[in-house]
Design brief:
With 349 residues, the protein is of the alpha/beta class. It has ten helices and 15 strands. α1 crosses α2 and α3 runs parallel beside α4. It is globular and about 60 Å long. The chain starts with a strand and ends with a helix.
């Protein structure tokens, strides 16, 4: 079987406003990738760079996809890493490889996860919340791990976290994400103030190059967007000797091909770090593929940041296979198990 054709359709969806500490989004644009083989089989992927977060543009992803080397002969093994064509743009590489793996798994009558060639397991999910009321509702819905974005108004956010601790069970895990916007002095003081709230970890309180200034903090730290920087991961051992850095958060659509995700996950586990998977407010294909990664390569006893999110409201009527509220059970149906979104969304070439 040979992949002979790749089609790219652009879509633009309006979404309920989502935000981090730096900016907000109320529109998402994506490229929906469909590959087709010589026997008529198809698979789909999604490139949806997040403006202001991803290091590439949609136009760069489109150009990279146009350069994809075809035809491509599928390997007989389930390990694609040795034969898969590489693209320089991460979101394009993620989209194309997702489409190839979707096609391959459908052709073989296997779920998408089977293309990784490793055992998979059910995973727990974390819910992004922004208030004590939202936190209480998430706990009522079965979520044991909650995530707050911080870094806009530290006093208000401290008050919100203290109020949240009053209304959720003591076993509920709270994790934070500052997207690297804090200075070392402010970060150290604020993390000291929240240390008694049983914070699971905080992602990117400061840029990774300034993490060593947080030597005395009592809240565990995590790397996320810093992993795009080629210099960050080689410095991880030095950082871990200086600060309580015990977690990496991997966003597949931001980091690119699955080979790099597997390598980072393996390296993190070998160092005794938690490996958490998350999304970049993309569409259903991004989320489905990230869920598969978490089930295959993520830490089993930690919750992953892959619960259904508000961005998906821009993609109506799409059911996420295997997603059961606060948990994901890897499905057994072939491929991603999603309808072909380029057809449903009426994407433009």
């Amino acid at each position: 079987m040979v992949i002979e054709r790749i089609d790219v359709a652009a879509v633009r969806v309006e979404i309920p406003t989502v935000r981090n500490a730096i900016r907000h989004w109320d529109v998402r644009e994506a490229l929906l990738v469909t590959v087709q083989s010589d026997d008529g089989g198809r698979g789909q992927g999604e490139a949806s760079p997040l403006p202001g977060f991803s290091h590439e543009t949609l136009d760069a992803a489109r150009a990279a996809l146009a350069s994809a080397p075809l035809p491509w002969a599928a390997p007989t093994t389930e390990r694609f890493e040795e034969t898969f064509p590489r693209l320089a743009v991460p979101s394009a590489s993620f989209a194309m490889e997702t489409a190839f793996r979707d096609w391959w798994s459908v052709a073989h009558g296997k779920p998408f996860e089977s293309s990784f060639g490793v055992p998979v397991a059910p995973i727990a999910l974390a819910r992004l919340v922004d208030s004590p009321d939202a936190a209480a509702q998430a706990v009522e819905a079965g979520f044991g791990t909650l995530k707050f974005k911080v870094g806009v108004d530290l006093d208000e956010e401290l008050a919100c976290l203290r109020a949240t601790r009053e209304v959720v069970p003591v076993a509920t895990r709270l994790r934070l994400d500052a997207n690297g916007v804090l200075g070392p002095t402010d970060a150290a003081a604020w993390l000291d103030a929240v240390a008694d709230l049983n914070i699971e970890f905080i992602e990117e309180p400061v840029p990774w190059s300034k993490l060593t200034a947080l030597r005395d903090v009592r809240v565990p730290l995590a790397l996320d967007e810093s992993l795009v920087d080629a210099e960050a991961w080689p410095a991880v051992d030095e950082l871990r000797r200086a600060v309580p850095l015990d977690t990496i958060v991997l966003k597949p659509s931001v980091l690119g091909g699955f080979a790099r995700l597997r390598a980072l996950a393996d390296d993190g586990r070998a160092r005794g770090m938690r490996v958490i998977f998350s999304h970049a407010f993309g569409g259903p294909i991004e989320l489905r593929a990230a869920l598969a990664c978490a089930a295959a390569f993520g830490t089993r006893d930690a919750a992953h940041g892959l619960a259904e999110h508000r961005t998906l409201e821009g993609w109506p009527g799409v059911r996420m296979p295997g997603l059961r509220g606060a948990h994901f059970d890897p499905p057994t149906d072939p491929g991603l198990g999603l309808p072909f979104l380029a057809e449903r969304m009426g994407g433009a070439p």
